[in-house]
Amino acid sequence: MSFNIRYGKAKDGENHWEKRKLLVAQTIQAFSPDLLGTQETLGFQKQFLEGKLPEYASIGIGRQDGGQQGEMTAIFYRSDRFERLDEGHFWLSETPEVVGSKSWDSSLPRMCSWVKLRDRRSDGPAILFVNTHFDHRGPDARKESARLLGEKISDLGEGCRCVLTGDFNAGAGSQPHQILFAESSPDNSGGITLVDTFAAAHPDATDAEATFSGFRPNVTKGARIDWIAVTPDWTIESAEIDRTEYDGRTPSDHYPITATLRFTDDGSADAGGSETSRDN
Q1: What is the domain extent for residue 122?
Q2: β-pairing, 75-78 with 35-39?
């Protein structure tokens, strides 16, 4: 699951974090993902979800100072299923190891968090799980961030099965999307092939794929700016946009998106789906 949970200090009136935080937790619990990437997550929001989701371990640091300041691209994973092998963070800039850095026409520091996991149910390769949030204003920043991300996943994910989640602030078919997903694109310089799970599961694109709702229920028209991507060594069983509402209220201004995945060469394990879809 990938879920932009909306910046918790935003002045959203009836949609303020305190009035919808239980809806966020309930929506996550309903799908019960093995792997969860969140965006716009402040430290107190991460702590709230940790309390409501005790079966998950988490990582995340603030984009401003590498500590608690600023939004996190926080990751949650089931601690009973996965053993953490390594983790890290980098910034979407020309100096990705510099905390709080930004480049190109980015309006704010943007970052990426990742964790390398061993699946206790499989003897197969480790899983590299990557979560990010691209800039909302800078088209050059989104384009260059896509290139950097491809390079980083290629490097970090050597020998791994990879899963990427994020809010990319760009629709399907945009230049960042082409850089990440078009196998024959000269811009795909990262050296790794990624598959857009939703596009693979729904090959006939429509204009009803919006993932940003602005807190309005049942919004369908608009760009699909939230993506889950995988390397080709996963079988994509399903990929959906979760438009759950609660008496006309949505848990965030983005819809969470989901994918149920199975190891292509190992039918004994799957990830990303609900409890009912797992092999036990």
Answers
A1: 2-277
A2: antiparallel
